Amino acid sequence: MTTSTTTPAGSAIAPRRRRADDVAGLGKVRAGIFVAPALILIGIFLLFPAVWTIWLGMTDYRLTGLQAASPEFVGLDNYVEALTDPSFWNSLWLTLVFVLFSGIIGQTLIGFGLAWSVRNIHGWTKGLIEGLVLAAWVIPASVASFLWLVLLDRRSGTINGLLGTEGAAWLIDHPMESIIIFNIWVGTAFSMQLFSSALSAVPPSQIESAKMVGASGWQQLRDVIVPNIKGHILTNTLLITLWTFNTFTPYLVTAGGPNGKTEILSVYIYETAIPGGQLGLGAAISLIMLLINLVIALAYVRVSKGRNKR
Amino acid sequence: MIHHSKRRALAAFAVATAGALVFAGCSGEAPEAPEDGPVTLTITANAITGGKNAAEADWIADWVVPEFEAAMKEDGKDVTVEFEPQGVDDENYKTKIALDLQSGEGADIIGMDGIWVGEFAEAGYIKPLAEVGGDSVDAWEGWEQIPEAVQGALSFDDERYGVPQGADGRVLYYNKDLFEQAGLPADWQPESWDDVLDAARDLKKLDGVTPIQLNAGTAMGEATTMQGLLPLLAGTGEQVYEDGKWVGDTDGLNDVLDLYKTIYVDEGLGDAVLQQEAAGRDTSFQLFASNQIGILLEGDYFWRSVINPEEGVGTAPMANRDDVVGYTKIPAMKSGSGVDDQDFVSMSGGTGRVLNPNSDHAELAWELLAFMNSADAYEARNAGTLAITPRTDVNDEMLADDPMLTYVSEEVLPITAYRPPLAAYPQVSTALQQATLDVVSGTSVADAAGAYADAAKDIVGDDAVSGG
User: Are the CB atoms for B46 and B221 separated by under 8 Å?
Assistant: First the structure.
């Protein structure tokens, strides 16, 4: 694979170049045998499902009924249907809100804030704080969601007990806010850990120098810390964005309800394809979602390339 | 270059295909075992000990499995029966068995709601019973005992796809204690929707009591249609499917949605938030059992399973069920305004069990299914937790023990209506659930009915929808 991208297409000198590339000296056939197991796995678990999804997305395949027995090829109908359906755009909008507040703002900022505030603490306090945050990350999502259901329960919920707001139906009246906070709670540990290690890699000499010239905490952060950990911030933001974009766990808390108010894209696809039975349409929306993911990833690659060049 | 990459692609394809073949080989059919050799049969149902439909689960595990194994042993056959219990929402259960059947898997005997038979049959997931189970199916003695109408619940296109498991009917349940506190008669029989609303208004004066809970919304799925919208629609004289057309934006539908609006939005007689909660139906059961809901429209399942005080049967048992819980027929909108000019209406459905066409031992599975529907089996099933069975011989003998089920079988079943056994029904039903949700969460009746009619037209086509 790599040879075909590094050698100029159709070039006459290609054979000599390729021989030089064959560092291990295995030859094409033996090298092929070595990578074959990986290729088979990739084919079965990545390539085939992807192609299958594309094909499904162009049929009216359903879970039950006549279209399950003999699905018809409908071309791009599913894509047209999805893209002209207000509920798809509503779902995309909800996803963007969810990613922005729970991922980018919530997890990243709070994760950084936690890492920043414990950076000079040592001993058991630091361990305790980190342990608590990590616990939320380690607990399986299904368990965490039950925990939150109990916390937010309308009739005997802990939150209502603590706040004295008997009968407040958080999951009905503030569903989006609820899953945003839930997701922040679940995922902040990653950002915290990543930023913790990033902060510890900032050269102490630079911070000392900044302190010597009288820089305030904010100025140190802006002029010394952030430039040093820019790469980490970028990586973290990309990962969090993609993860949050694709996460399905909020379904365990609100099931997409009430009335679709928390139907983020992953939930929307599930509702369409499985309980709704429209597997073809669901596959089409999945592909749209995949493309959005690709755009995000490409944007990241561009930003990081630009950074490296500089 | 092109040549090379082509060859490489070909090689990769060949390798992938080989891999796929290996995988296919793994999941291929096991060689057919001799019918008298060691055979394992599996049963699945949305029933689980200590949870949903516990009585059915216990009966399968404690009676069907050992008795059938013993009976087989007498015939010199080594048969093991395994029960795969489920205890989830009906919608989730349906998805699971659809996926099982689609991938050629699944239990040999599968419990399902009669209304799924159409879409499952059209998808080719299930086949006519005689085609799967062999000649002995049509010769079964039980068919004579099961009335034609009841068999219809598990039939599609005039073919039997399964054996019905029981008949049911819907009534209004009410809490006599709360009625007494509100100055209402313990022996209540409303004659119209207004009578029900009047009673609810009286109940509203009580503290901490939700006067009436009428199933609405999409969260509880088919329960909304079956124990809410459809009986009400029947009370306006309309049916969901009539003369080849599905109900659209009709007067009847508007009347029904108006009633939802009166209860949940205008007068606050019901708890609208509860209807939107993910576990709303179970919560409404709990609240009724703890004397916090006055009136509830439910099927006889509610009586014999949910609030059944028998140990380990109900999920919300009421120790004083027989004294406190009253039941009464669902009135039409006004006297005589129901379908066929009836004063009272109801809806019935039926569940049953089908044979899995992928079964390796289909004929033996039929033997087990017939065994599960024998008179002896129903008598064992009814010990302690009576249900209306599909068999007249068993009903004649046993129902007299339970006044509620006798009431349903004598008063409700003669006036009841059934859902159309058509594959489009579940989708129309979902659209109807959405219409109730719209009204309950504040949309106007006209908009909700209009949106529903549009959705119905999308599903079945413009010509197949009545009304505006």
Answer: no
Tell me phi and psi for residue B436, to 5 degrees: -65, -40
Tell me the per-residue pLDDT of A108-152, one tens digit each, with 9 for 90 and over. Answer: 999 999 998 888 888 888 888 888 888 888 899 899 999 999 999
User: Which residues are bridge partners to B418 per DSSP?
Assistant: B348
Give the nearest chain B residue to A11 (CA atoms).
Answer: B1
Mean pLDDT, rounded, for B252-267: 97
* Secondary element (H or E) of residue B210: strand B210-213
How close is the nearest chain A Cα to the Cα of B156, in Å? 12
Instruction: Tell me: cis bond preceding B357? Omega within 30 of 0 counts.
Output: no
SS3 B319: coil
Which residues of chain B lie closer than 8 angstroms to A39, CB-CB?
12, 15-16
Residue of B nearest to A169 (CA): B273
CA distance B53 to B305: 7
Enumerate residues 94 to 133 of chain B having a beta carbon within 8 A of any beta carbon in chain A.
95, 98-99, 102, 116, 118-120, 122-125
**CA quadruple B57, B58, B64, B69: dihedral sign:** positive
Considering only CA atoms, which of B323, B333, B347, B342 is closest in space to residue B417?
B347
At residue A20, the pLDDT reads 60
Would you say B4 and B332 are in contact if contact means Cβ atoms under 8 Å apart? no
**Calpha distance B443→B216 (Å, rounded):** 14
Helix (H) or strand (E) holding B297: strand B293-299
Interface test with A, best of B3, B8, B15 (most A CBs within 10 A): B15
The Cα A157–Cα A128 span in angstroms is: 26
Spatial CB neighbours of A155, under 8 Å, sequence gap ≥ 6: A167, B283
Q: Could you tell me which residues come within 8 angstroms of residue B139 by beta carbon, excluding any fewer than 6 positions away?
A: none
Q: Which two tokens stand for residue B283?
A: 């919560």
Mind listing the pLDDT tens digit for each residue in A33-66?
999 999 999 999 999 988 999 999 999 998 888 8
Residue B43 sits at φ, ψ, to 5 deg, of -125, 135
Pairing of strands B344-348, B159-160: unpaired
A259, A274, A279: best mutation site toward chain B, by most B Cβ within 10 Å?
A: A259
pLDDT in tens, B199-213: 999 999 999 999 999
Quote the tokens at residue B429.
């039903």
Burial of B416 (0-12, 13-18, 19+ CB in 10 A): buried
DSSP A12-38: TTHHHHHHHH-TT--HHHHHHHHHHHH
